[in-house]
Amino acid sequence: MQKVVLIPGDGIGPEISAAVLKILAAAGAQIDWVEAEAGMAAYEAQGNPLPQNTLDLIREHKVVLKGPLTTPVGSGFRSINVSLRQEFNLFSNIRPARTLPGNHAPFKDVDLVLFRENTQGLYSGIERWADEEQTRAESIALITKEASEAIIGAAFDYARKHNRKKVTLVHKANILKLGTGLFLKCGNTIAKDYPEIEFEDLIVDNMAMQMVMNPQRFDVVVTTNLFGDILSDLASGLVGGLGLTGSANIGEGFAMFEAVHGSAPDIAGQNKANPTALLFSSMMMLDYLGQKDVADRIGAAILKVLAEKSNCTADLGGCRSTSEYGEAVIAAL
């Protein structure tokens, strides 16, 4: 049995986590869960949104499945998601976006995987007030050769392993010549080691336009932190929204799998939330843990339930509760 740290999350997190755990158990996943707290729930209970005990458990067990966490806007504590990625150097954020059966997505035949550098850029936390009156703020985007090579190499390795044909690197080197210029230079160098994979680079604003005109042209995409944050959500929108896309954060020896949608406090405790995103994230976790056969079984069951719609939650066109949706996936197993 593999021990995995479970952070159920805030808002709807405990409900969707409970549904996912039942499905994984029914599918035969070999996991021993170790529950921990983070986010608003931990802050209210312990006065710390990221308790030391939670960090210690992650260091011990190496793998985390995490529900959505609430981050205060404009004030309060810093994003726990960002803190966890930096604390454990989870430099590679992997966000697949694939057209699914039964949903009313704007596009068909989308199948792309976005790799986002997860620890640097404008999310490095290097900020200061430039005057005493606090009328001017400065934020520094840190981009290093080491981190750029790590994420670009991960994207190319994924493309080779999964028989993907093309890698698109997204940048803004026409304006941000040093930072994203360095990122682009690293990409051009690394691409030479993968001659069987087509390589292209696109400026980020052009990339955004191309993604909503012809998203089918993209295969594997790699970019910096802020651009990746925005484009990965855009990619989710192409296939039905954040409720239908999983996410992995992987580093050297540590991995965190999470639902990237919000904690939806307005429907918390009402058994209405859609657990699909956390389910897809858990499938990525199973693959990482060497239990791909279990992940594939769950994936086939999810696709069956999504295609039928009647057993889905309301946001997917059905009329079932969170727990009923989970039971439908278990029945489809």
From TrEMBL:
State if Cytoplasm is listed as a keyword: no
A Gene Ontology annotation in the biological process aspect, one of them, is: carboxylic acid biosynthetic process
Keyword Acetylation attached: no
What Gene Ontology molecular-function terms does this entry list? isocitrate dehydrogenase (NAD+) activity; isocitrate-homoisocitrate dehydrogenase activity; magnesium ion binding; NAD binding
Q: Which domain of life is it from?
A: Bacteria
Give the catalysed reaction(s), semicolon-separated.
(2R,3S)-homoisocitrate + NAD(+) = 2-oxoadipate + CO2 + NADH; D-threo-isocitrate + NAD(+) = 2-oxoglutarate + CO2 + NADH
What are the protein's UniProt keywords? Answer: Magnesium, Metal-binding, NAD, Oxidoreductase
What is its EC class? Answer: oxidoreductase
**Do you know which SMART domains this protein is assigned to?**
Iso_dh
Q: In which pathway does it act?
A: Amino-acid biosynthesis; L-lysine biosynthesis via AAA pathway; L-alpha-aminoadipate from 2-oxoglutarate: step 4/5
Q: What does this protein do?
A: Catalyzes the NAD(+)-dependent oxidative decarboxylation of homoisocitrate to 2-oxoadipate (alpha-ketoadipate), a reaction involved in lysine biosynthesis through the alpha-aminoadipate pathway. In addition, has high activity with isocitrate, but is inactive with 3-isopropylmalate.
Family under the similarity heading? Belongs to the isocitrate and isopropylmalate dehydrogenases family.
State the protein's name: Isocitrate/homoisocitrate dehydrogenase
Q: Which species is listed as the source?
A: Acanthopleuribacter pedis
